[in-house]
Amino acid sequence: MAMAVAAKLLVILMTLLGSSAAWDAGALLDEMPVIHMLRPLQSSGGGLSLHADMPCDSWRLAVETNNRRDWSTVPANCEQYVGNYMMGGHYRADSKVVVDEAIAYAQGLKLGGGGKEVWVFDVDEITLSNLPYYAKHGFGAEPYNWVEFTKYAQQANAPALPETLRLYNELKELGIKPVILTGRREDKRNATDHNLRNQGYLGYEKLLLKPVDVKVPGIVFKSGERKKLVDAGYVIVGNIGDQWSDILGAPEGARTFKLPNPMYYTSARAILISPSAFNNTISIVRTDGSTVHSLMDAYHEFISVIK
Q: Cα(155)–Cα(142) distance, rounded to whole angstroms?
């Protein structure tokens, strides 16, 4: 009950102050973030991380380095830790480090002058923050509810991530065109476009969403869309996402950057299927280079990936 009340207070505060002000308030309250006013912690780890089978800060490190994979929810004992990390100053500070590096890289580029250089941005937890939603749903400790998140996304009022918006505007000044590539479905195009523009993301080259009837892993969809960009003559000079599936899968771009996100995980697994020229067999090459030759094994592996 206490967490639910704190979450409601948080959403009201963000709405009243606006996205940038809310982020600044979170940074100022690093010693006692809004989400933990009822049970304050002294830092993003606090004493909480010492009581888990795996310390929560170690769990987050494993997640961010893609060593902890295929998890569906934040461990229950880490809910407050993740909430404190996201709403305190730590998340903003980590994001600033990443964006500072991205801007330094972009400023050092020598553009070809043809106006075809682009930078790929994801939407959720990159251009837009879904913290108002996840603050009411355990910061990822609750199972993902597609219906509820769709309702939230259609409201088109998610705040911008200030650090990403800073990068976005800097790239435009440098002559690099932003391309928005998201795993959101086409039925959310109007809401997503409206939300992005209202939060200051103006003048992007393309907004690419996943067709409603396409059932492929996100890494397959996004790498395919980047391939289309390259085939159309664009040069992907940069790519930023919050999931490994955003930045893996050729062509990734000349350089990739990852913002932190310990609230949810999107699989970065994919398999490539190519028919053999003889005996009606197939060869399955996994992304790690290993091969499957059994048709039945390949079928079951493929089904498990696209579920």
A: 21
Cα dihedral 211/158/143/43 (nearest 10): 140
The answer to whether the CB of 269 falls within 8 A of the CB of 287 is yes
* Measured CA angle at 29 (ends 201, 27), to 5 deg: 30
Question: What are the tens digits of pLDDT across the range 132-191?
Answer: 999 999 999 999 998 999 999 999 999 999 999 999 999 999 999 999 999 999 999 999
Length of the chain: 307
The type of residue at 44 is S
Q: For 66-125, how does the pLDDT look when each residue is reduced to its tens digit (9 = 90+)?
A: 999 989 999 999 999 999 999 988 999 999 999 999 999 999 999 986 889 999 999 999
What letter would DSSP give residue 6? H
Residue 252 has phi, psi (to 5 degrees) of -75, -30
- Alpha-carbon distance of 249 to 75, in angstroms, equals 28
Q: What is the rounded CA–CA span in Å between residue 140 and residue 78?
A: 10
**pTM of the complete model:** 0.74
Contacts of 110 (CB under 8 A, 6+ apart): none
Measured CA to CA, the distance from residue 31 to residue 28 in angstroms comes to 8
What whole-number distance in Å separates Cα of residue 281 and Cα of residue 152?
46
Residue 273 forms beta bridges with which residues?
284
Which tokens go with 223? 């790498």
3-state secondary structure (DSSP) of residue 178: strand
Looking at residue 215, what is its pLDDT? 85
Distance in Å from the first CA to the final CA of the chain: 34
Contact 205, 225 (CB under 8 A): no
Count other Cβ atoms within 10 Å, centred on residue 107.
Answer: 11
Nearest to 127 by CA among 151, 96, 152, 158: 158
Distance separating alpha carbons of residues 103 and 119, to the nearest angstrom: 12
